[in-house]
Inverse folding.
């Protein structure tokens, strides 16, 4: 059994002041039973449903106040537990139908306990791309979670930030006096009676609580700076302020303003590109194919993030063509690989990509034919795969 007040008072919290005041008001107004059993998240149905899959994207909802475990307050305030986020994230990683994971966030923040372990787990993920969408708030603890994603997107009216720590001490001694009640604490150990709600806050107790706040703040700042690739000064310079829309992007706390529908379609387009390439690489046998696919697709991914979708799409078509040609003649792939890598790394314009690739393909094909004539008395018939690939390349590169 845990005291609910112990989760609200005299402990560092990562939540907006407005939400904290709301929670305190709810607790006081409804006189909620202060002894509540902490239930395992697996026995609860309080979170906003399991993730849904759309365009091969697992969308995990992170809504309301964030807590390590549930204490039955969802009907009053709305909660999401760190335990449930972890469960859904791990399930999405194991789900073969899921190619990317999207965190759908609308939260003022919440509890410190359990947060940073979850954030580190999300940040260290290298299995599937992780994206955060702020819809409409990701403050304090919620922003810590968002910062663990590869990219943070938000709507025009959404807000991020509040990178700070807050704690409240309630001095109830005057109310006790009016009620005719006197509380006397009998204790051993100088710090045992610190933060007693039935007595004014002492200087020593304040210093102890401030130290806890400063330590947690330092961890928060360093975590966000690591996750976002920003300096400590960049983060502390926000002074726990909140940033909305384009200002969030300018501050470095978000990457782009976009609607959720546009984002899902955009991520779905990336999945489609990978599917197209995987269809060809599955049947590839030459060792160079693996290296080619990995190098090219890594840069294609960068191009997509920079909104160079047209170039990226052409590169994908080039890659498929090269893979098919390679099945017919490895020499063609060996000649085309450096050309393709140079093109994607230079992020060339479409005309340059088409012209260079077409010339390289023609030269490679001619070189392969000359080599074949030197090694055989008769030129072997051209593979149907090569014939099909050449027709396909001609159409794509017109």
């Amino acid at each position: 059994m845990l005291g609910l007040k112990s989760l609200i008072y005299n402990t560092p919290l990562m939540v907006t002041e407005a939400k904290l005041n709301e929670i305190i008001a709810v607790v006081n107004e409804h006189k909620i039973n202060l002894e509540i059993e902490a239930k395992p998240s697996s026995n609860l149905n309080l979170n906003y449903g399991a993730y849904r899959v759309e365009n091969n994207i697992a969308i995990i909802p992170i809504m309301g106040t964030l807590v390590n475990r549930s204490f039955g307050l969802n009907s009053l305030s709305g909660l999401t537990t760190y335990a449930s986020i972890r469960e859904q994230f791990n399930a999405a990683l194991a789900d073969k139908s899921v190619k990317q994971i999207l965190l759908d966030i609308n939260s003022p923040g919440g509890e410190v306990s359990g947060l940073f372990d979850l954030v580190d787990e999300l940040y260290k993920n290298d299995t599937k791309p992780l994206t955060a969408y702020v819809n409409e708030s990701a403050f304090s603890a919620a922003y810590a979670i968002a910062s663990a994603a590869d990219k943070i997107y938000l709507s025009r009216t959404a807000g991020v930030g509040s990178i700070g720590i807050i704690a409240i001490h309630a001095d109830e001694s005057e109310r006790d006096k009016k009620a005719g009640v006197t509380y006397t604490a009998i204790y051993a150990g100088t710090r045992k009676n610190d933060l007693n709600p039935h007595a004014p806050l002492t200087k020593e107790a304040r210093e102890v609580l401030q130290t806890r706040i400063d330590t947690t703040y330092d961890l928060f700042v360093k975590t966000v700076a690591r996750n976002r690739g920003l300096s400590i000064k960049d983060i502390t310079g926000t002074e726990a302020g909140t940033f909305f829309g384009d200002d969030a992007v300018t501050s470095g706390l978000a990457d782009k303003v976009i609607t959720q529908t546009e984002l899902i379609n955009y991520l779905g387009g990336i999945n489609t590109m990978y599917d197209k390439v995987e269809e060809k690489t599955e049947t590839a046998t030459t060792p160079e194919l693996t290296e080619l696919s990995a190098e090219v697709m890594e840069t294609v991914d960068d191009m997509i993030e920079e909104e160079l979708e047209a170039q990226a799409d052409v590169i994908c078509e080039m890659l498929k063509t090269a893979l098919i040609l390679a099945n017919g003649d490895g020499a063609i792939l060996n000649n085309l690989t450096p050309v393709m890598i140079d093109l994607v790394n230079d992020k060339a314009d479409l005309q340059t990509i088409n012209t260079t690739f077409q010339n390289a393909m023609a030269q490679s094909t001619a070189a392969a034919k000359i080599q074949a004539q030197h090694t055989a008395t008769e030129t072997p018939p051209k593979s149907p795969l090569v014939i099909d690939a050449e027709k396909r390349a001609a159409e794509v590169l017109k």
In short: Residues 335 and 363 are 9 Å apart (CA to CA). The chain is about 50% helix and 15% strand. The mean pLDDT is 75. Residues 203-228 form the longest helix (26 residues).
